[in-house]
Amino acid sequence: MAFRNPPPEQIRALLQRVRRIAVVGLSPNPARPSYGVARSLQQFGYQIVPVRPAVDEVLGEKAYPDLRSVPGPVDLVDVFRAPEHVDGIVDDCIALHVPALWLQEGVVNAPAAERARQAGIMVVMDRCIYKDYRALLSGARA
Length: 142
Description:
The chain is α/β, with parallel strands linked by helices. The protein is 35% helix and 18% strand. The chain has 5 helices and 7 strands, in the order αβαββββαβαβα.
């Protein structure tokens, strides 16, 4: 059976309940898509937690080298890494009991996504969280 994303109403509900987002692969370079998306998420009211080794901070937030180093729980892990890195990220999400995983456009690893789903994690794959926020919430959070 092929991987299917949750229906729009479930994605909308996810975006409404999420508060703290760990952004894996968040670049400090303003020209990179991860930076623009994360900056927009901050403007929408989310707390961003950059996850990127060898960087002290991004967008004014302390950065962590990996998910297991992030203090406290996160509501969603947003991934800007190549598909071959998703297996390890899913391992971390399962170990940390992360409730939701978002794989950005172009990040496709169906076996890893299905493994996360089987572990009880809500998974959205190959979609842009910024675009979905704009389309489903029209710029206003409930």
